[in-house]
């Protein structure tokens, strides 16, 4: 590899790129062509994204600074330089968030019959009376006011909770006011609907405003000098010494509790908070000015999801899409019979996730099924797959489940499932030491007339029936023997046996997936150098692996056409003369979260398609168990080509990366409107109507049906 491709100038800082991604989500909240309540949802998502970003990424950088870690990232930045850049950019972004909320969304909501009352001072007399009664009956009994004085230290303020800080002084006393705080209870709704008093109008107020108005009732012998909401974000990155953790389950449970008192990374306060009150918070949380955010509006915009969920405003939302049947499974009750006939490609959420659930359910009940093995990374709160696995074990089948306890923010959920599965008689594995198991694979071993047959599901997304309605993912159902053999080897490796000498079709990280991707990219480079047409299309969530990017630069310089569809982080730069002029990067941000990983290599006309669980990131290639699998059925390869082509032609939700690092929407002038996600929804609906005949499960949607 030519070291010329490793220059820091050729790479964008990962965190800087992530902020650009959240700005693309924010641009959806600002898009006047999108239904109003959908814009609320996108604004809420930007806030939720920022919370996790601070708790994990910014916290990790702070840890590096504390540890004196001075190594620079691929863009040549130290941890402190990255923090400085992040805080500057996020302050700018938060200003745009709140100007979008205050100047655009709130007035539009009022025009459409929903009034959000910003402060309790704006209430009418009748509304004040209602709010006070609501406080006395519903809120007061739940609150726990806490004061700080010589005998009571500053209380523990929990991560992400909304609180009201106050300065209070004893009635008739001239002593300096003391600090008090009360947590806004998350068990009560943040949005309180109150009588409007205006025809055709509904009115809501925030719970913190209801509490603030009545805060004097919590401190009866005191005068409340001032009261303002505030919120903190703590370091929530788990540090687990697996080598020293005798029981990973107990160690993670212990670490989860520590999230509540990790270092404070960000402090949000209401703009206009009195300086003495802010000074106390700043001192107690040991936080610098650049990590304090003065908010002109309600703290924690994730409350907008509650507004989105209000009934009566359906005309201001996108019509809910119902996932459609899978054509190959529409006319059969027996999923194993269907898989024996052909490999089956699944495309969620356009096609329903039910076949994946039914695959496990049918296996659990089928007397001929001997064993079920599955990896679980994130599952839903009431998972039908978990229930089916438990039933299978109770039916006497061999059930092995790898539950990834280290799936970030799903640790508690997964601990509960792991214990339940063990009780049902499943063999539960907690993964490999030092590695997260991120691969999505299910193996069903079945006794049939001609011997043992293995059925396999491989996917790009989690076994989560809830997020499968929101995330775009792909899956493959197959009983191809080479993949069945590899699937058995995967589970043997995960449960503790050594890996086999040979693999047939699957490529695994961290074993040799990195090498496999390198080999595929370098093969295209060689084809280009030999004067042959060379082409790579790669769709993923994030691209930040320096070695992979360097290989892409080398391929581009050799003349390989490279089209990337990267939803989130992209550390690659386009348009570098002689380096990346043959590379384009598309980012689709739409109603569904783009989550699939699909890879295409032209291979001198012998085209190859792959899908998998891994992005092109160091953590996926080096620190996780990931699986890449080929799609070899010609009909399914045509289908993947179609999916990638429609995404590349999207001119509604697609943003194109520019050489200066900015992203711009496609210029649609003179082009027919094409929104990939809408296209696939309509295509799935049309396919579900077709009779089952050979060659009749491909549909091309007439362009005019998708035009404005």
Give unreliable regions as ranges. Answer: 240-246, 693-708
Structural class call reads alpha/beta
Q: What's the story with the biggest beta sheet?
A: 10 strands, mixed
Overall 3D form: globular
* Range of helix content: 25-40%
Mean pLDDT: 90
What's the alpha carbon Rg, rounded to whole Å? 28 Å
Organism: Muricoprocola aceti
Enzyme class: transferase
GO molecular function: polyphosphate kinase activity
Function: Catalyzes the reversible transfer of the terminal phosphate of ATP to form a long-chain polyphosphate (polyP).
Summary keywords:
alpha/beta; 10-stranded mixed beta sheet; EC 2.7.4.1; ATP-binding; polyphosphate kinase activity; metal-binding; transferase
Tell me what you see in this structure.
It is a single chain. With 708 residues, this protein is of the alpha/beta class. It has 18 helices and 27 strands. Mean pLDDT is 90; it is low at 240-246 and 693-708. InterPro entries: PP_kinase, PP_kinase_C_1, PP_kinase_middle, PP_kinase_middle_dom_sf, PPK_C_dom2, PPK_N_dom, PPK_N_dom_sf. This is Polyphosphate kinase. It is an enzyme of class 2 (transferase).
Please specify the SSE layout and strand pairing:
Layout (H helix, E strand, L loop, with lengths): L13 H16 L6 H31 L12 H33 L2 E4 L7 H15 L6 E2 L14 E9 L7 E6 L7 E4 L7 E5 H7 L8 E13 L13 H11 L5 E7 L4 H11 L6 E4 L8 H5 L26 H7 L2 E5 L5 H12 L3 E8 L7 H11 L3 E6 L7 H14 L2 E3 L6 E2 L2 E9 L2 E9 L11 E8 L2 H14 L12 E3 L3 H17 L5 E6 L5 H13 L2 E6 L16 E6 L4 E2 L3 E4 L6 E5 L5 H5 L1 E8 L2 H16 L4 E4 L5 E3 L10 H14 L19
Parallel strand pairs: 1-6, 8-9, 11-12, 12-13, 14-25, 17-22, 19-20, 20-21
Antiparallel strand pairs: 2-4, 3-4, 3-7, 5-6, 7-8, 10-17, 11-15, 15-16, 16-17, 18-25, 19-23, 21-26, 23-24, 24-25, 26-27
Helix pairs in contact: 1-2, 1-3, 2-3, 10-11, 11-12, 14-15, 17-18
């Amino acid at each position: 590899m030519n070291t010329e491709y490793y220059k820091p100038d050729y790479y964008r800082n990962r965190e800087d790129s992530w902020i650009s991604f959240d700005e693309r989500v924010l641009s959806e909240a600002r898009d006047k062509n999108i239904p109003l309540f959908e814009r609320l949802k996108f604004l809420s998502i930007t806030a939720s994204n920022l919370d996790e970003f601070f708790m994990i990424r910014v916290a990790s950088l702070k840890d590096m600074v504390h540890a004196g870690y001075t190594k620079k990232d691929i863009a040549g930045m130290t941890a402190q330089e990255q923090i400085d850049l992040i805080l500057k950019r996020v302050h700018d972004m938060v200003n745009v968030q709140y100007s979008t909320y205050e100047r655009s969304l709130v007035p539009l909501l009022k025009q459409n019959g929903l009034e959000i009352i910003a402060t309790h001072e704006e209430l009418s007399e009748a509304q004040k009376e209602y709010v006070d009664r609501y406080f006395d009956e519903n809120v007061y009994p739940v609150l726990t006011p806490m004061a700080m004085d010589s005998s009571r230290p500053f209380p523990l303020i929990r991560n992400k909770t909304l609180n009201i800080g106050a300065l209070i002084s004893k009635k008739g006393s001239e002593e300096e006011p003391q600090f008090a705080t009360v947590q806004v209870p998350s068990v009560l709704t943040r949005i309180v609907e109150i009588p409007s008093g205006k025809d055709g109008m509904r009115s809501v107020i925030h719970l913190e405003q209801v509490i603030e108005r009545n805060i004097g009732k919590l401190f009866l012998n005191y005068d409340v000098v001032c009261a303002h909401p505030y919120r903190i974000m703590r370091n929530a990155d788990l540090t687990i010494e697996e080598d020293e953790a005798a029981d990973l389950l107990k160690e993670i449970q212990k670490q989860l509790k520590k999230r509540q008192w990790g270092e404070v990374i960000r402090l949000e306060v209401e703009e206009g908070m009195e300086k003495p009150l802010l000074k106390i918070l700043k001192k107690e949380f040991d936080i610098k000015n650049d990590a304090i955010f003065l908010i002109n509006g309600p703290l924690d915009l994730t409350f907008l999801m509650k507004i989105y969920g209000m009934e009566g405003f359906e005309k201001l939302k996108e019509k809910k899409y119902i996932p459609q049947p899978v054509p190959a499974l529409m006319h059969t009750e027996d999923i194993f019979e269907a898989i024996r006939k052909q490999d089956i490609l699944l495309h969620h959420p356009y096609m329903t996730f039910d076949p994946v659930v039914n695959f496990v359910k049918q296996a659990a009940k089928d007397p001929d099924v001997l064993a079920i093995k599955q990896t679980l990374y994130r599952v839903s709160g009431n998972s039908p797959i978990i229930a089916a696995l438990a039933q299978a074990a109770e039916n006497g089948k061999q059930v092995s489940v790898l539950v990834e306890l280290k799936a970030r923010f799903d640790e508690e959920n997964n601990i509960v499932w792991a214990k339940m599965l063990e009780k049902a008689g499943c063999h539960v594995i907690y993964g490999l030491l030092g590695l997260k198991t991120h691969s999505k694979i299910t193996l069903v071993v079945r006794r049939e007339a001609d011997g043992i047959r293995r059925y396999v599901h491989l996917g790009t997304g989690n076994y989560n029936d809830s997020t499968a309605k929101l995330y775009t993912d792909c899956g493959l159902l197959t009983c191809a023997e080479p993949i069945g053999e590899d699937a058995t080897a995967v589970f043997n490796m995960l449960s503790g046996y050594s890996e086999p000498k040979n693999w047939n079709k699957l490529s695994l990280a961290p074993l040799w997936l990195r090498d496999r991707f390198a080999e595929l990219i370098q093969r295209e480079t060689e084809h280009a150098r030999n004067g042959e047409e060379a082409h790579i299309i790669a769709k993923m969530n994030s691209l930040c692996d320096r070695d992979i990017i360097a290989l892409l630069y080398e391929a581009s310089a050799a003349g390989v056409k490279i089209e990337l569809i990267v939803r989130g982080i992209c550390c690659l730069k386009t348009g570098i003369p002689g380096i990346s002029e043959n590379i384009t990067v598309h980012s689709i941000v739409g109603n569904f979260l783009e989550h699939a990983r699909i890879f295409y290599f032209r291979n001198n006309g012998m085209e190859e398609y792959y899908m998998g669980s891994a992005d092109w990131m160091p953590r996926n290639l080096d620190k996780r168990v990931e699986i890449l699998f080929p799609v070899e059925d010609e009909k399914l390869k045509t289908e993947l080509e179609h999916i990638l082509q429609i995404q590349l032609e999207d001119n509604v939700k697609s943003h194109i990366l520019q050489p200066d690092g900015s992203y711009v929407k496609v210029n649609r002038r003179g082009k027919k409107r094409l929104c990939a996600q809408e296209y696939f929804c309509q295509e799935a609906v049309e396919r579900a109507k077709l009779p089952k005949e050979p060659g009749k499960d491909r549909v091309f949607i007439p362009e005019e049906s998708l035009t404005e």
